[in-house]
Design a protein that fits this description.
About 40% of the residues lie in helices and about 20% in strands. By secondary structure, the protein is α+β, with helices and mostly antiparallel strands. The strands form 7 sheets. Strands 4, 5, 6, 7, 8 and 9 form a 6-stranded antiparallel beta sheet that branches. Helix 3 runs antiparallel to helix 5, helix 5 (about 85-100) runs antiparallel to helix 13 (about 415-440) and helix 15 (about 515-530) crosses helix 16.
Length: about 600
């Protein structure tokens, strides 16, 4: 039911809005049937609003083995994943389908960064056809994180199949033929169908806790000798479950590939529009489902009015019998040709004078049809919950905030689409965090990270450095270790960085006009100038920062800014004292030289 209705919704949004029976009847009578597609415009309005405020993920530490600095690095890695795999395209496409038919999907995968490298990266891929996806019917969560089965199926040309899987079987079942009903969905003359099957396997396992706090499954536990050599012992056990994600690619005849995926979730993420349970059955739909009837009414009444007006120039001539004798062809074509004159006979068959022919004035469009058209358009707005702010009733003057709230009314009516997208992207980031310790486990690997402002930077992860402890002994310390620690993700919604930067610039510009403006300009002029979107703003900000001692703070340093300022102040004091001591030494030398000269003069 859901898939059949979704297919109808997809066709309806993009113009296939006339019922087949009515279209056949109209074609038979050679009558027009117009499509005034207002539904697509409303859908685009919701989707474009989502594009303007795309949610952003941010990693947060949740236990004592994680830290804030590493969380910032992991956040930068997640944004790098989204940028280099163009995840925005996958998010937007899935949101488009969710708004239109009620469900869309994207997938997360890992792959080698190059043919000659062992390093891997994480990618987010769009799924262009949601009808090729079959989600777990037992899944109930809006982000699909509780799903334990998923199927993606698509066709491949046989020539491509033979190149990618040489020697694979592409013949039908032995007891069947090429037209066998069991294989005709999997095999055609030119194509073969492939299916990717994801499944979650849960097996009972014993969980072991070690004396240093580490936790392992019993089948992963080293031998007693190794534990004793490391000074470790088992301090507790409990029954648990071991969860693994399996993936396989199959045809109707055999399994082509299979592997165990990292993490604990199936890496295919759904985005739903409306998802409700009616009479024990789940129903998924988007904006189009209930817009069909009012949209069809709009089309019907617009067609009716157009037809009435179009028939107007074809109004009939009122001609007395015999008045068009000899001029029948001219009157027959008078509605389609522009004759300079129309002739008629002035006397009838009885010899009496007859009046000239008269055109019968066409009837205007019925007032009821015009009112019905306006009512149908209003019904469409009510069903979609989207109203033109110009047509909203109000009296008296209105503040800018009131106008803004009226403009946002349609956004609030359809906010659930944006909220569901946020949930799905949040789950995608949880997959990022779940895969990071496995995919980015290479020691001293240099990765690109993306900051909040979209600017890239290079960071070395899992970097081992040698330092000294309090007793002066050398110890190894791992910096930016993304392989340990537990992290969670928090979604940031609302305007993007550029929009917030412009809003901040406006706020600071207003603050400069207050009594605090002089102090703000003195301590933070470089920060304000850096927000200006103009050529040369960065260079000017750098010069202002160089001239401002308060601006010499390293935001990436683990030392707090206040402590940095204290250190810089002490350094300045030491530098000033050094300069004073150097001046005193020079003065003492100068005085010693003068005294020596005087002594030499006295001796002479």
């Amino acid at each position: 039911f859901n898939r059949a209705e979704a297919l109808e919704d997809s066709k309806f949004r993009f113009g296939d809005q006339c019922p087949a029976q009515m279209m056949a009847s109209r074609d038979l009578e050679q009558r027009p049937m117009l499509t005034i597609n207002e539904t697509d415009g409303y859908c685009r309005q919701v989707v474009n609003h989502i594009r303007q405020q795309r949610p952003r993920g941010k990693a947060h530490p949740v236990n004592n083995t994680a830290d804030v600095k590493t969380a910032k690095v992991i956040t930068g890695i997640g944004r790098h994943i989204e940028v280099h795999s163009d995840a925005a395209n996958a998010y937007d496409l899935a949101a488009e389908f969710a708004v239109t038919i009620g469900f869309g999907y994207w997938r997360v995968r890992h792959d080698y960064i190059a043919d000659d490298s062992f390093d891997q990266d994480i990618y987010v891929d769009p799924i262009a056809n949601p009808f090729c996806c079959y989600a777990d019917p037992a899944s109930t969560l809006p982000d699909g994180s509780d799903g334990e089965r998923f199927l993606i199926t698509d066709t491949m040309r046989k020539e491509t199949f033979r190149k990618e899987y040489p020697g694979a079987n592409e013949q039908p079942f032995r007891e069947g033929a090429s037209g066998d009903a069991r294989t005709m969905d999997w095999l055609t003359k030119d194509t073969i169908r492939l299916a990717e099957y994801f499944s979650v396997e849960r097996k009972k396992a014993e969980l072991v806790k070690l004396s240093h706090g580490g936790i392992l499954y019993a089948d992963e536990l080293p031998s007693a000798e190794i534990l004793a050599a490391a000074g470790l012992s088992v301090v507790g056990t409990r029954p648990s479950w071991k969860r693994t994600v399996k993936w396989s690619k199959v045809t109707a005849f055999e399994t082509l590939e299979e592997q165990t995926l990292p993490g604990r979730w199936i890496p295919v993420v759904p985005v739903y529009g409306m998802d409700v349970v009616i009479d024990g059955k789940r129903r998924k739909f988007g904006m189009v489902r209930f817009a069909r009837d009012p949209q069809r009414m709009v089309n019907y009444w617009q067609t009716n009015i157009t037809e009435v007006i179009a028939m107007g120039p074809k109004a009939k001539w009122l001609v007395a019998e015999g008045a068009d004798e000899g001029h029948e062809n001219e009157y027959a074509q008078a509605n389609i040709r522009t004759f300079p004159v129309l002739r008629y006979k002035t006397t009838g068959v009885d010899g009496k004078e007859i009046p000239p022919p008269q055109r019968i004035a066409p009837e205007p469009p019925p007032a009821g049809a015009i009112e019905a058209t306006m009512l149908a358009s209003q019904n469409l707005q009510r069903v979609l919950g989207m109203f033109d702010p110009v047509n909203l009733k109000h009296t008296g003057p209105k503040s800018g905030e009131a106008v803004r709230q009226e403009t946002m009314q349609s956004e609030q009516s359809n906010y659930h689409f944006y909220d569901n997208l946020c949930r799905s992207i949040n789950h995608t980031w949880r997959i990022f965090l779940d895969w990071t310790p496995t995919i980015y486990d290479t020691p001293n690997r240099v990765l690109r990270v993306i900051g909040d402002d979209g600017k890239p930077d290079l960071v070395t992860v899992n970097q081992t450095v040698t330092t000294q402890d309090e007793m002066g002994a050398a110890i190894d310390k791992v910096l930016n270790d993304v392989r340990v620690g537990d992290y969670d993700v928090v979604m940031e919604t609302g305007p993007g960085f550029n929009t917030k930067r412009q809003e901040s610039l406006a706020v600071f510009s207003d603050m400069l006009k207050t009594p605090l403006g002089e102090m703000i300009a003195k301590v933070g002029a470089d920060l304000i100038v850096r927000m200006v979107d103009a050529d040369g703003a960065e260079a000017l900000a750098d010069r202002l920062a160089a001239a401002n001692p308060l601006a010499q703070i390293d935001d990436k340093s683990p030392v707090p800014p206040k402590a940095q300022m204290m250190i810089k102040h002490l350094q300045q004091q030491v530098q000033e004292m050094g300069q004073q001591m150097q001046g005193m030494a020079m003065e003492m030398k100068y005085r010693g030289d003068i005294a020596k000269i005087k002594d030499q003069g006295d001796t002479r």
